[in-house]
Amino acid sequence: MDRLGVFGHGFTASGHPVATAVGLENVKIILEKDLVANVKALEEKFLSRLSSLAEHPLAASSRGVGLIGALEMKPFEDGAAGDAALALHMTCQEEGFIVRNIGEAICFCPPLIITAEQVDELFDCVARALDRVVAERG
User: Fold this and answer.
1) C-alpha dihedral over 110, 111, 112, 115, to 10 degrees?
2) Distances in Å between the alpha carbon of 27 and those of 17, 40, 50, 61, 97?
3) How far apart are CA 35 and CA 33, in angstroms?
4) What is the reported pTM?
5) Are 113 and 32 within 8 A, CB to CB?
6) Closest Cα partner for 123 from 50, 48, 40, 39?
7) Domains of the chain by range and CATH?
8) What is the pLDDT of residues 22-37, one digit of tens each?
């Protein structure tokens, strides 16, 4: 579990009245600020940039909807399952961007308030990290 860097679990706030109140306030803000419109406006850009990363030699494929996506990595020939995604995860962190690696995928779920410029910044960072992983592995 430590090797992959994630511990998937749930139930953090299930049935808790404070968490429920916060969740309801969150839904209210999403509706008031029309954040769904922001997702719709940025979806094409987000998915296009994600798809372009799938053309990288370390990547196998990409998938997504709205502002949720994943970049599936090709496994390293000399490594265990999940090593390529873990390497990208660690390199992204060094570049100043936090991603979540799950198995052999890097997952993206930016905040709904993200801007078009920040979408570019996100994927530019991941592209740099992909190139660094290739350079560091030789």
Assistant:
1) -80
2) 15, 17, 27, 32, 26
3) 5
4) 0.80
5) no
6) 50
7) 17-137 (3.90.1150.10)
8) 889 999 999 999 999 9
Structure tokens at 114: 């993200």
Task: Return the number of other C-beta atoms located less than 10 Å from residue 97's C-beta.
Answer: 17
Q: Which two tokens stand for residue 4?
A: 């992959």
Q: In what order do the strands lie in the sheet with 68-73?
A: 59-65, 68-73, 105-108, 100-102
φ and ψ at 137, to 5 degrees? -90, -10
- The string of pLDDT tens digits covering residues 88-112 is 999 999 988 888 899 899 999 999 9
